[in-house]
Structures are given as C-alpha cells and as structure tokens.
Amino acid sequence: MLVQNYLPALIFLCVAAGIGLLLLIIGFMVGRGSKDAEKLSTYECGFEPFEDARMKFDVRYYLVAILFIVFDLEIAFLFPWAISLDSVGLFGVLAMGVFLAVLVVGFIYEWKKGALEWD
Questions:
Q1: What is the per-residue DSSP string for the chain?
Q2: pLDDT value of residue 47
Q3: Rounded distance, CA 118 to CA 72, Å?
Q4: pLDDT, tens only, 33-63
C-alpha cells in the first residue's frame, strides 16, 4: 500500500530525469563547433579579466547582505501573521512584538557599529 502512494511521484521523477537526459544527449549530438581555446577563455563583460576572482570583499558587504536577508524574512513572517491576526490573539501579538523588538535591536546595533556607512 505504501508503494502505491509514492508510485505517481516515482513515475514523475523518472519521466523528468528521462526528458532531462534526452535533451542533454540531443544538445551534444546536434551542437556544432569545437571547443577551441578562444571559446573556453574567461569572459568578463567584454574585458580581459583584470583581477583574481577570489579577491576579498569588505565585511560590510556581507553585513548589508545579511541585513537584507533578515528583513526579507521578517516580511515573510509578518504576512501570514497579519492574515491570521484574528485567530492568534494576544499571545500572537506579543510574540510578534518580541520578534520585531529583537530585529530592531539588531538593526540599531549594526547602525551604531557603522556597518551601513560606505566611506
């Protein structure tokens, strides 16, 4: 009985893998041209590469990226909470208040540390 529940998913995965492999094989068979050194060379916006790709970034870049992710996730949590505001009651409002307070404290900390200033 358990196999019957997963059989449609297994068939779907097999068909998807088969189509993917078929398209790859067709691409290699139909594709024309050889891979010469010019075609395989590094391309960077029309210029020759002028720096190492593994150069170090300023840590402020990462802080701003993390800040963006945090506030993006905040919106992802706020939307369903706002939709179900009637059913969550006072406990839900207080829990969201604590959640937002923690985020605001983190934002103020980053602001005070100067992570958001680009000199």
A1: -HHHHHHHHHHHHHHHHHHHHHHHHHHHHH--S---TTTTS--BTTB---S-TTPPPPHHHHHHHHHHHHHHHHHHHHHHHHHTHHHHHHHHHHHHHHHHHHHHHHHHHHHHHTTT---
A2: 63
A3: 22
A4: 777 777 777 666 666 666 666 777 677 777 7
CATH domain 2-113 topology: Methane Monooxygenase Hydroxylase; Chain G, domain 1 (1.20.58)
Domain boundaries defined on the chain: 2-113
> What distance, in Å, lies between the first and last C-alpha atoms of the chain?
65
Tokens 């059913």: give the residue: 87
Q: pTM of the prediction?
A: 0.47
